[in-house]
Specification:
alpha/beta; five-stranded parallel β-sheet; 10 strands
Amino acid sequence: MSMDLEQIINEVLYRLGKLDPICLVLGLPYEEDQIHAYHEGGYVKWFDLKDLIQHSGDVVLPELTLRQMMSAYSGQPCDAVSEALMYLTLYGCTVRIDAHRIEWKAEDYKPSPYMRRFQEAYDCFIESGLKPVDEKPVCEKHVGVYQGKLINEAYARQFVLEGNKDLYVSPDTIVTPLATDYLKQHQVHVRRT
C-alpha cells in the first residue's frame, strides 16, 4: 500500500497522539460519497470493531434506522451497524452519526406508547455517547479562529476555494507542509492567535 506525504504525516501525528482521526468501522456499509467526504474533511482511519474500545476519538457510523436502533437497544442486534452501535456504546465510546442519516425523528410520528419506547431507546443511546451532528465532515465556512488540531492540504484547498485570504489558527494547531505550501502559493496569511 503506497501512501502520499500527507498520509504519512497524518499517520505519524496520529501515532504521536497529536491527531484524532475520523474513525470508521471495517465491514460497515458506508456509502462512497460519505467516505469521500470524510477523506476530504480529515484523516480517516479504519478499525476493527474490537480495536475501537481502546481508541480515543469519535467513531462514525454510516446510518441508523428504527430497526437497527431498537435491535441494539434490546440487546439483539439485527445487523453489523446495530451490533457496532450496541458494542461501542456499551464500552463508552463516542459514536457520531450525521443527523440526516438517522431515519427516526420524534416529530415525524404521533405520540403513542410504542413511540415512547423508541424515544426511550434514542435517549438511552444519546446518554451513552451517540452524537447526532448536523455539520458536514468537510470544511465549512472559515470565520474566526480555527479550533482544530490539524490543517491538511484538503482543508487548505477548501479554504482557498471559498475565497478567504486570512486563516486564524490557535497556537497548538499543526499546519502540514503541503497545506503550508498551498496556502503560500495562493497568498493566504496564516495567523496564530
